[in-house]
Amino acid sequence: xxxxxxxxxxxxxxxxxxxxxxTFRDSNGLWENxxxxxxxxxxxxxxxxxxxxxxxxxxxxxxxxxxxxxGHRALVSLERGYxxxxxxxxxxxxxxKAGSANVLHLHGxxxxxxxxxxxxxxxxxxxxxxxxxxxxERGSQLRPHIVWFGEAVPMMxxxxxxxxxxxxxxxxxxxxxxxxxxxxxxxxxxxxPVYVVDPNTPDIRNRKNxxxxxxxxxxxxxxxVDQLLKEAA
Length: 233
Ligand code: APR
What we know:
SIR2/SIRT2 'Small Domain'; NAD+ binding; Ssirtuin_cat_dom; Sirtuin_cat_small_dom_sf; Rossmann fold; three-stranded antiparallel β-sheet; 9 strands; single chain; protein-malonyllysine demalonylase activity; 19% strand
């Protein structure tokens, strides 16, 4: 078991699109319908926390109702032949719901809340709503456990270390528009194969060793996973 190859998966909103959750930058994506600076920054929280809560409450409600699709499930099957870690930019819990064993959330999790002042005070949310007035054990208002634009990405160092050790990198459903997460594609060791599953081709510099599978996750991933499992057998 120890000599299994290591696969790191970097996933983005596109893998959950076929579960009915909106992406950010596609047409009719979330950022066409909301302004980032109104709902996803520390300034937005200071200016109008109720609006920010409402935005994430709605997203939480949708995410909790969603089911994993064949793309999420293919990544679970991959564990039959590889040591797999999923590094996701997604804040839904569909990788976990599908059964992936190792999931690292770079941008936080909708199913958790945290103290406004102490980021180490993190709580599971009971239900789908955080209300103004809901407080942590030390009395501060609870906020969504989400990394907003302009905030540090605490799990980034761990993600970097994992990616530097990967034997194969699989990138799925991300426009690679947001850093530092997008920088992970350049952290692999030289010669490590990179597979990109996305109906649109994200812009990747230095395309050596990159294979583009220009298909939706629900068909592209199961086929790629079958191929990789055959190679591991
Ligand atoms: N299967 C695979 N990929 C898909 C599918 C699909 N069915 N549908 C769309 N995509 C692709 C799009 O082509 C695009 O490349 O998913 C990608 C979605 O890109 P974004 O909307 O930019 O989402 P993401 O890359 O996850 O955004 C990164 O931005 O707003 C922040 O914090 C937020 O984590 C998010 C970050």
